[in-house]
Amino acid sequence: MSYIMVDIESDGPIPGDYSMVCFGAVLVQPGLEQTFYGRLKPISEKWIPEALAVSGFSRETCLTFDEPTQVMRSFADWLKQVSDGKPMFVSDNNGFDWQFINWYFHHFLGRNPFGFSSTNLGSLYKGMVKDVFQNFKHLRKTRHTHDPVDDAKGNAEALLTMKSELGLKIRL
Asked: Which residues contact 109 (CB under 8 A, 6 or more apart)?
C-alpha cells in the first residue's frame, strides 16, 4: 500500500454545484520527490469569489485550465505508476478534500482508484498524542501557501515526522 497525501482548492464548499480548481498530491516517502499537480476547468457556473481567491486564480484564468476528465485520467495514471498496490488517500481535511477527489473520479472516470477509504491526518495525530485539542501543523516543514503541492508536501512531512520521531507504525 502506498500513502498519497492530497490537498485541493475549490471555488465553493461542495463538488458538483462548485468546482475543484486545482489539487496536488505527493507520494509519502522520504524525499517527497513524486508529485502530481492538476488544474481543472470549472464544471459549474456557480462560484464564490472568496473561496476562489484562496487559490490565487481568477475565474477567467480557471476557464483556461484542462478538462476535468483529462486531469483525472492523468491523476489515475500517476497513481498507478507511483503506487505499490492500492493507494491510500490521506489529507489534512479529508472531509473536504476527499469529497472533491472522490466525486470527480466517479463523475469523470466512473471509478475511484483510492476505493472508498481515506485517512485524516489531523485525527491520526490526535489519536497518537491522545488529545483531541492538539494539532499536527507544527510538524510541517514546507510553509502552508495554498499551493496544493506545497500543502500536500507539508502534510506529508508531518506524517513522516510522526513515523520517525513519534513512533507511528506505518510502512512507507
From this structure: 69, 72, 73, 76
